[in-house]
Amino acid sequence: MKVLITGAHGKVGRAATQAMINAGHEVLTTDLTRPGFERKPAGTPKYTMADLTDAGEAYAVVRGADAVVHVAAIPEPTGNPPHVVFQTNLMATFNVLEAAVRFGVKRFVYISSETVPGFFFPERDFLPDYAPVDEEHPLRPQDPYALSKHFGEQLMDAAVRRSDIQCISIRPSWVQFEGNYEVNLGPQIRDSSVLSPNLWSYIDAYDLADAIVLATESDLPGHEVFYIASPDNVGGHDFAEILSKHYGDQIELRELSRPDASGISSARAQEMLGWTPKRSWRDYLDSEGKALNT
């Protein structure tokens, strides 16, 4: 397929681009980074700079694509004013999806977020009703980032009602790659009480990229939603033990797939997409959260 990847120069976009090329697809990319004019290495995908909040620029980059992977977004709500986060993310999604519908794109993969239930940036305290959290858990977004992602998923619902497009929304957990495992996850490995706004969940960027390829190639009808998280938790702790230690009986503990399970379940993605995660924090860090010498 000819696949357009938006936000192609971010950590998720880069991993998804390479995974899509490896899968044999023709890849088109777009982002806000200014293009260079040096000779490109063989196999470099075509790149077009575009501001997707502008409908005309969105239409220009979507035209001719068979599938769209929409990664582009302001990735969290703390570095920009709330209205900028919300407007940028929602209008970019609307414009790209609207263009995809008008041009007859068959598959749209939307990168949503684990924050939509309320994780990470709540302005008031948030605890999930139960764990591991799955796709049936109620959504209670508070911050402008999570709210924009929640509304983006509703745009997918609307698109499949009015066209033949097939949509998949992916809610990744906290995305890690070789450059940030130690700084992000090291403190949690040493102390399970440190910075765990998502029940000790994470996802490797390259495992996420594999899920994005499977979603793009899928023939699932309508609009499906999947959490994508590594099956183990940060630090490999006994999940039932640390949940009880830090939250008492405030969060209902449901059946675990393994003792060191993640606080977010990806069972649905594994079953319906055939996704198999291959990487763990253990491939990058030792038991003290220090980078391995590889």
TrEMBL record:
Pathway: Carbohydrate metabolism; galactose metabolism. Transmembrane segments: none annotated. InterPro entries: Epimerase_deHydtase, NAD(P)-bd_dom_sf. It comes from Arthrobacter burdickii. Belongs to the NAD(P)-dependent epimerase/dehydratase family. Residues 3-176 form the NAD-dependent epimerase/dehydratase domain. This is UDP-glucose 4-epimerase. Gene3D superfamilies: NAD(P)-binding Rossmann-like Domain. Pfam families: Epimerase.
